[in-house]
Amino acid sequence: MQEPIEFSLEQEFNIRKFAGEVKQLSRSEAQERLVELHRQMMLKDNLYRSLIARQWGIDTSSASG
Fold it and tell me: Hey, CA dihedral for 23, 28, 30, 33, is it positive or negative?
């Protein structure tokens, strides 16, 4: 059975720091940051797909994401 993935101590610290920063945001600022975060996550997913496809020699030009 695979062990659950856990955060490092540094990552835990960054999460708590980020949570404190988020609490200080206005609703509209939080919404803008959430949309930007989602955009960046999608870009990261696309990058990972591209790197894996390149490593495996898969043509992704016709694939939809």
Answer: negative
- Where residue 57 falls (left for φ over 0; alpha for ψ -120 to 50; beta otherwise) is left
Is residue 48 within 8 Å of 29, Cβ to Cβ? no
**For residue 13, pLDDT beyond 80:** yes
Burial pattern 9-22, b for ≥16 Cβ within 10 A else e, equals eeeeeeeeeeeeee
- Contact between 33 and 25 under an 8 Å Cβ cutoff? The reply is yes
Residue with tokens 């610290």: 13
Classify residue 62 by its DSSP letter: S
pLDDT digits (tens, 9 = 90+) for 51-61: 999 999 987 66
